[in-house]
Amino acid sequence: MLTLASKLKRDDGVKGPRSSNPGSDSTRRVSVRDKLLVKGTCEVNFPDPNKLHYFLLTVNPDEGYYQNGTFQFEIEVPDAYNMVPPKVKCLTRIWHPNITETGEICLSLLREHSIDGTGWAPTRTLKDVVWGLNSLFTDLLNFDDPLNIEAAEHHLRDKEDFRSKVEDYIKRYAR
Fold first, then answer.
1. Are 109 and 86 in contact (CB under 8 A)?
2. What is the pLDDT along the chain (175 residues), one digit of tens a residue?
3. Residue (of 142, 72, 97, 88) closest to 120 by Cα position
4. Which pTM value belongs to this model?
5. Distance CA 68, CA 82 (A)
6. Which residue of the set 59, 75, 106, 130 is catalytic?
7. Is 106 considered catalytic here?
8. Nearest Cα to 128, choosing from 28, 13, 38?
9. What is the 3-state secondary structure (H, E, C) of the chain?
């Protein structure tokens, strides 16, 4: 089973070298954006370049049930970051076992407190959040511990009908 930790280790080569020369604010913003991009399937947009604590993440899965969809997430980094996780909401209506139709997300690393130790820790980064959200469409798609129980049960009952409903949601809401 592929976990987020192993995926991050495998793909750690994506990190670029840090520059020792501090650049202008716009250079730093571009640098932050570059660090958050994930294998071309994610795009970061700062609606207000003066509010770097609030940004939108667009995920375009290139495989699996959600392939060809465009899913937008709102990410707000609280003042207490990195002691607490960022607040994340899915803005695109989706039929997914780990995301409700109203945008709530079940991703262990976004939990402030976790019994199993996989929740938020001060050592986690925004890159981990982006990797995690991207992986919800592939590796971390979890039907065994769902937030949207109806979607998970639908998959269990009839995988082809589940796929059909996902494709319908993509056509209606995720283009």
1. no
2. 334 454 445 555 444 444 444 444 444 444 444 444 546 789 999 999 999 999 999 999 999 999 999 999 999 999 999 999 999 999 999 999 999 999 999 999 999 877 777 889 999 999 999 999 999 999 889 999 899 999 999 999 999 999 999 999 999 999 9
3. 88
4. 0.77
5. 33
6. 106
7. yes
8. 38
9. CCCHHHHHHHCHHHCCCCCCCCCCHHHHHHHHHHHHCCCCCEEEECCCCCCCCEEEEEECCCCCCCCCCCEEEEEECCCCCCCCCCEEEECCCCCECCECCCCCECCHHHCCCCCCCCCCCCCCCHHHHHHHHHHCCCCCCCCCCCCCHHHHHHHHHCHHHHHHHHHHHHHHHCC
Q: CB–CB of 56/47 below 8 Å? A: yes
